[in-house]
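Reviewer 2 asked us to include a model.

Predict the structure of this chain.
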Amino acid sequence: MSFTPLQFASGSRFLTTSRRATLAAGTFLLVSLAACDLGMTNNSNTAETFLAEAVSTTPVGFSMTENSYAGTENDSWRPMRRRHGGRGGPFGSAFGATGFMGGGLHADFAHGQGFRAGVARGPFGGDFNADSCTFSAASGKISCGPTTDRRGLTSERWVIYTDINGVAQSRPDSTTAKMQSHAEVSGTVTVRDSSTRIVRHVSDRTITGLQAGSTQRTINGTSNGTEKVNGFNAEGAFTADRTVADITEGLVIPVRTDGRSYPTAGKVTRRMTVAVTVAGGETETASRSEVLTYDGTATASLVITRNGTTKTCAVPLPVGRPVCE
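Predicted model (structure tokens):
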């Protein structure tokens, strides 16, 4: 299986049992953007209202890749002419709080979780279930799949674990220093109203500093996805193209044993776009990007660009609402 690289980058994440439990427990961060006036207008302009709906969740299957999004998907999203964002969106509510687009930030990028002994413990621990996968000594890869789930999405992933000397390992242990992962997801999902969603997602991520005794972990990665929707709304048939992308650059998170940890360096760039055509009308487009920068202080910088309009915000760490200019 091969994929053509997309414009923003490439990347992917498979949710392990522990990650699903983490999400279910609500330990990911949903930071409020309600305090920021991003110029939402009170008219029915579809570029405004479609954006608010489209970026409230991620395309179906994107949570199966490695990225900064909280994993909130929606397999029944459709464009609606609303004045403000719906539940889960950057201007609406999601799980009782308002948040970043795509449902919020994944816990590892925010307040994280406590570190414990051993690899796969704590933020970016490289947790990965390789029980049904195959190790190749020649390539050093632990390969999984392709497998197809009940929705019709086909997924494939490989992981490489290496020690501090660069020697590949068939299983991670206390000497594992680095993890490289790659994932691909594709397929067509048909929902109850007979609308279809054709998706393709790719991701790559590298984590270093996993070995016992390391004082910090460093993360770099890219991910992107596309979703082409053919469906129906109150106005008739529509087509929609959503793209989502994520780039993690030089993210550093200290290893600590006295509580939760959060990044102290690095940058995360998140982008989403949508193009919608309803009932044979004109195509309307919208875009949003979020650039989150950590500088070692207790406040991260958040720059939001929405349809060409930019706002700069400060985000208190580990958990806090953005304060925007």
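Residues 1-46, 83-98 have pLDDT under 50 and may be disordered. DSSP finds two helices and 13 strands in the chain. We have added this to the supplementary material.
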